[in-house]
Each structure stands twice: as C-alpha cells, then as structure tokens.
Design goal:
Structural class: mainly alpha
Largest sheet: none
CATH class of the domain at 2-166: Mainly Alpha
Shape: elongated
Order of helices and strands: HHHHHHHH
Number of helices: 8
Length: 251
C-alpha cells in the first residue's frame, strides 16, 4: 500500500488536465468492458430461450442467429474497449515512468561523493531500469485490476443471488477465497525466488559493466597477477635445462 500511495500522484498528476481526462476516459472504457462481460451470458440465455417453438419456425431460426451475432459483437466490443483503455492510458504511463526516472536520477546526483567513489554503476543502472519498468505494472494493477475485479465479483454475486439462490453466491465466494489464499501463498514463495534472481542479475551486471568502465585498471591488475606466474614458469624451465646440462657422475 505504501508503494501505491507513492504512485498515486502519477495517476492524477497536478497541472495536467489532459492526463486526468485520459484517466477518466480509461476508467469509463474499463467499466463499459466490465458491463459487457457481465451481460454476455444473458445473450446465451436469450439464444437458448429463442429455440422454443412458441414463435414459429422463423423465430426459432432468426432469433438465435441474432443472439449469436450479438454475442460476437459483444466479444469484439470487449476487445475494442480493452484496446481503447490501453491506448488512452499509455500517455499516463509514459509520464509516470519519465517522472519517476527523473526523480531517481536527481536523488542520485544529490548523494555524497563517497557514494559515487564507491560506485557500482552496472548494478545501479540495472536497478533503475527494473524500477522504471515496474511502474507500468504497478499503475495498471492498482487502477485496472483491484477495484474493477472487486466490482465484477459484486455484480456477478448479485446476479447469481437474483437469478438463482444464495447457495450459488456462497459457493462462488468460497471458491474466490480459496483462489485468493492459494495465489497469495504461491506469490509469496515466488517472490523469494524472484529476489534471489534479481540479486544475481544485479551482481552479474555490476561486474560486467564495471569491468568495461575500468578497463585499464583491470588490465594492469591482471598483468601484475600474471607476471609472477610467468616468472615462476621461466625459473622452472631454466632449472630443468641446467639439470639436463649438468654432467652425470660415473656410478
């Protein structure tokens, strides 16, 4: 929640009425897509009900076909609304990534000289890159996943309770609770592996980039390490040659 509160100003940026309009339009497209998703099963119901022989043969053929066409249109509309939402929200995402990256680099330039002398450029650049890329996921998750999913669950539970019985609502609620508990447990387990993987990736990138930035000192250090080994090999070769040239005493 602390991270979500820190990113909240980027969702509703001050002095940017155009970005605020985009956020509102994205939410409207999201709500419309959720409404279409909830109503799609009713199209199936109407198509099945139209197969009854009450309205004659013509109605038995025309109405189900119309319901199936409406179902296809609803599916296309769901995809179109999702693409419209992403297109409207793209500018907000880019503004947030740019603002967060700029804030990070300003903070780095305010740090002391001791930090920059003991620099780990490769690992630091990897961490900054990983953090700015995570902004996209966090913004989408906080705006398009949590509240809309809860709203969709409430709508579905209300429809089940209205059309069927409270036991259906109870069964759905228990299923969702079990799924949330399982997802939370597996996610906590994966986070440990993900952190270990990120630490190893940061360490590898630190060594690779810093070795290139410090190319000359690395070569000098390597040459100093190799010279004693080479001199020791030369002394061994000279010793073998002297032993081979030395005259042998008669036994």
């Amino acid at each position: 929640m602390r991270i979500v509160r820190a990113l909240a100003p980027f969702l509703w940026p001050q002095g940017r009425a155009d970005l605020r309009r985009r956020v509102v339009l994205s939410l409207i497209a999201l709500l419309a897509a959720k409404g279409v998703t909830v109503y799609v099963p009713f199209l199936y119901k109407d198509a099945v009900d139209a197969l009854s022989p009450k309205g004659g043969v013509t109605a038995m053929v025309a109405v189900p076909i119309a319901m199936l066409v409406a179902y296809g249109v609803a599916r296309i509309l769901m995809a179109a609304l999702a693409q419209l939402r992403d297109g409207l929200f793209a500018a907000v995402e880019q503004h947030a990534e740019r603002g967060l990256g700029l804030r990070t680099f300003r903070h780095l330039h305010r740090l002391s000289l001791r930090f920059h002398l003991d620099r780990r450029t490769g690992g630091l650049s990897r961490i900054v890159e990983r953090g700015t890329r995570a902004v996209d996921f966090l913004l989408r998750f906080s705006l398009f996943n949590i509240a809309p999913t809860i709203l969709e669950m409430v709508l579905v539970c209300g429809i089940l309770g209205w059309k069927f019985d409270w036991r259906y609502v109870l069964g759905m609620a228990l299923t969702v609770i079990v799924y949330i508990a399982f997802t939370f447990t597996v996610t906590e387990w994966r986070i440990k592996l993900r952190r270990e993987m990120n630490a190893l990736d940061t360490d590898a990138n630190t060594k690779a980039v810093d070795s290139l930035l410090n190319f000359e000192p690395s070569n000098i250090s390597a040459m100093r390490t190799m010279r004693p080994c080479a001199s020791m090999r030369r002394r061994r070769v000279m010793k073998r040659r002297r032993c081979a040239r030395a005259p042998r005493l008669p036994g």
